[in-house]
Amino acid sequence: MKNPIYPCLWFEGNAKEAADFYCNVFKDTKITDENPIVVMFESAGQKFMCLNGNPQFNMNPSISFFVVCETEEELMKAWNILIDGGSILMALDKYEWSEKYGWVQDKFGVNWQLSFGKLADVGQKFTPTLMFTENVHGKSEEAINFYTSVFKNSDVVGILRYAEDDHDVTGTIKHAQFKLNNNVFMTMDSGLAKGFGFNETISFVVECEDQGEIDYFWEKLTEGGEESMCGWLKDKYGVWWQIIPEILKELMSNPDKSQKVVEAFLKMKKFDINTLVNV
């Protein structure tokens, strides 16, 4: 199993504008592919998908991206661009975990946690951070154990729990790091955050080599969750995933087949590779 995992950001028809914006925010960032449905960009070797969707969902802080900035100049440049038209959730300041850190929701609604530090401390520049709130509050550790059981090359890096004087539920997760197929993720529980939770605006794409892998992830991740259309599913914690065949990009780039491929997968819940290849 190779199974690259990367985030998909749902925009309201302005995916290209958003991708261009992030190319300006973060160094070593470029658009790698685009079509009317999605725009792909890479930053620091990590892949992001920007989807042109409908205005039916609202982004929120339940999933944010922890960003390691190795110089203060890099951090300040990104911060100043991101706060323009955005909103500050945590002021840029010194905290116990960072000499300089701030949390901002940008003008498109995407949440970023910028932190001055060393890339080696995390292992990657951008780390998806899942906040477990409301009906899934307190289930962060259970989710970590579930995800690391599903994906290969996975392990728990570390868990820090709330103490009695932390103004949240003692014993629940204050901060945790874990790896799924060597991709770093972070989680936290929040009993204070209200009125938002996971939704379709940020999902995680899992590329599969063959039908067996698609069947495997579909079965595991829909357990207690919910099937949707076009390879989308919601797991039992409310986190959204897209289980797609890696050959899909090749099929979509074939002008003689792309439209038929789209027509075929629009009728599918779980992807059927054989059907797509033979349309």
Question: Can you give a write-up of this model?
Answer:
By secondary structure, the chain is α+β, with helices and mostly antiparallel strands. It is 24% helix and 37% strand. It has two domains: 131 residues, Signal recognition particle alu RNA binding heterodimer, srp9/1 (2-Layer Sandwich); 69 residues, 2,3-Dihydroxybiphenyl 1,2-Dioxygenase, domain 1, CATH 3.10.180.10. The radius of gyration is 19 Å and the shape is globular. The relative contact order is 0.14.
How would the blueprint of this fold be written?
Layout: E1 5-11, H1 15-25, E2 29-34, E3 38-43, E4 46-52, E5 63-69, H2 72-83, E6 87-95, E7 98-105, E8 111-116, H3 119-122, E9 126-132, H4 140-150, E10 155-161, E11 173-180, E12 183-189, E13 202-208, H5 211-222, E14 226-227, E15 232-234, E16 240-245, H6 248-252, H7 258-265, H8 273-277
Parallel strand pairs: 1-4, 5-8, 9-12, 13-16
Antiparallel strand pairs: 1-13, 2-3, 3-4, 5-9, 6-7, 7-8, 10-11, 11-12, 14-15, 15-16
